[in-house]
Amino acid sequence: MVRFCRRLFFLLIVRPVLLIILGMNVRGRENLPTDGPAIIVANHNSHLDTLTLMALFPLRDLPKLRPVAAMDYFLKNKVLAWFALNIIGILPLERGAIKKNPLADMEAALDRGEILILFPEGSRGEPEQRASFKRGVAYLAKARPQTPVHPVFMHGLGKALPKGSFFLVPFNCDVAAGEPLTWTEPVSSFMETLEARINDLAEQSHVQPWE
Amino acid sequence: MDKIFGQPKEVIWAIGVIYALLIGASILTAVLKRRNPGEGTIELSRRVTSWWFMITIFTIAIIIDRIVSTVFLGFMTFLAFKEYLSLIPTRRVDRLILLFAYLAIPLQFYFAHLGRYGLFLTFIPVWMFLFFPMAMTLAGKTEGFLRAVGTLSWGMMITVFALSHTAMLLAAGDSAGPAGGAGLLLFLVALTQFNDVAQFTWGKLFGKHKIMPKVSPKKTWEGFLGGLVSTAIGAAIAGPFLTPLSVPYAAVAGAMIAIAGFLGDVTISAFKRDLGVKDSGGLIPGHGGILDRVDSLTYAAPVFYHAMHFFVFSGRI
Fold first, then answer.
1. Is residue B85, in this structure, part of any structural domain at all?
2. What is the ipTM of this complex?
3. Could you list the residue range(s) of the whole structural domain that residue A110 is in?
4. Residues of B in contact with A163 (CB under 8 A)
């Protein structure tokens, strides 16, 4: 039942909104994973980022897609938690000082063949402004070195629905997917390569200032 | 007047002729593709395929009824305006104002639907023109004010105001001629698009002398003049069926559409070149975005409508 609601939500709400009100220019769609396990890494501007990335996959892949999201934000009230866990299908991540291995849930998801969606900027932050990536993604890649990491650059959704705003303004958004990379030692150079890939994708996109 | 599917028979006949041309174009591109396969002919056949979709959507929209046609034209305008706003630099502080700008689209098309000439003509050039800078002033950020208000006002005019003239043609009523407002709309849109294709074809075949090397390096005098003559002839043939114009006046209307269409095309090219983009979007394979497809119409629609209004609807001709 929940699975059906989930499909319906994406078919009847997410896709029409993305198609009609927003509009997407997608480049490099062929670079997206066709099967799990895989890690998608994108910059973060808006709540719509997650939904947009998920809408790029066929509906039958929905159960496999797991956006990794902050537990303290999304599980703070019951309604939002139900929605986030069941309809969006988030993998909750605990932020701050914790004792157990923070990557354990993600590693387990990858072992189940799921596709993780990660936003290593850690927060939506200032819309359409890039923040440096947190290094967790590198440790995850290190723990599962065979898993492909797919860099994705997104632009425009931060204008349509930035952090702290409650109304949607139509804007076309750009999504550019690059060729996947896999883990290479050490953490610092892996992070540099990953950020450089996303910078390349950003440069190929047409990005206007948004102050 | 005889009707087929609730439309004047002239409209249905004209649509039949358009499909005949389309079939001809498909055969021609298939032959070209076989003779010299390559990126060029693949792009050409992609374009023709997109024409099939666009013409079919447009046909369905104008055949069903006037309200559907007007909503369809408004939606196309929304897509064009959205592409425009997505291409230009904007300010975060103006988000709510941009939302109001979008909401002006249904209002403008509603005024067109009612055929309220005065409201239609003043809503954007007067009221929105005054509203945008006022709202931005009240928002209180002066940094980038002139750029923001200038780009928003111009974008609103070149997309929403200009393209809404297509819907105003539908409201022409009894003065619209044998095929009604739908006939006028079909005349304008078919000839504008025909002119684009004719200019492209003449230019490809005989193009030598560049007409605007800095703005549109591929456009030539041969293409422009070939398109102008072809469109004038096409208009002279279609005019008596679709419009109240006699053959010579229809040819003049065709020439006006060709010249205005060319100017709209290069104006949008200048705008895109300034921003450093080739296409306004990726919605239509082989064509680019909606704005790339309606660029000629942004000039041809107001010029044709106001010429008709001044000379024909008023009874001067």
1. yes
2. 0.87
3. 2-204
4. none
B230 half-sphere exposure, CB direction, 13 A CA radius: 20
Q: How many domains does chain A have?
A: 1
Q: Note the pLDDT tens digit of each residue in B108-126.
A: 999 999 999 999 999 999 9
For tokens 């309604």, the residue is: A79
Please check the confidence at residue A2 and state whether its pLDDT lies above 90. no
**B83 reaches A (C-beta below 8 A):** yes
State whether B92 and A172 contact (CB < 8 Å): no
For residues B294 and A211, give the distance between their C-alpha atoms in angstroms, rounded to a whole number.
30
Cβ partners under 8 Å of residue B64, min gap 6: none
Closest chain B CA to residue A22? B82
**Position A137 in a domain:** yes
Residue of A nearest to B282 (CA): A25
> Structural domain of residue B137, as residue ranges?
80-164
Residue A57: φ, ψ to 5°: -100, 155
The answer to whether B283 faces chain A, any CB pair under 8 Å, is yes
Domain count along chain B: 1
Residue A16 lies in a domain: yes
Confidence band, pLDDT 50/70/90 cuts, at residue A86: confident
Residue type present at position A60: R
- Residue A93: inside a domain: yes
The helices-and-strands tally (H runs, E runs) of chain A is: 9, 7
CA angle A74–A5–A57, rounded 5-degree value? 80
Cβ contact B281–A23 (<8 Å): yes
Tens-digit pLDDT profile for residues A151-193: 999 998 999 998 888 899 999 999 999 999 988 888 888 899 9
**CATH number of domain containing A114:** 3.40.1130.10
Over chain B (317 residues), the average pLDDT of each successive run of 10 is 79 93 93 86 88 92 91 96 94 94 98 96 97 96 95 97 96 87 94 95 94 93 97 96 95 98 96 88 81 95 97 90
Cβ under 8 Å to A: B residues 247-276: 275-276
Mark out chain A residues that contact chain B at CB-CB < 8 A.
23, 25-26, 127, 156, 159, 162, 165, 167, 169-173, 206, 208-211
**B145 lies in some domain:** yes
Comparing alpha-carbon positions, the chain A residue that sits nearest to B87 is A208
Residue A209 lies in a domain: no
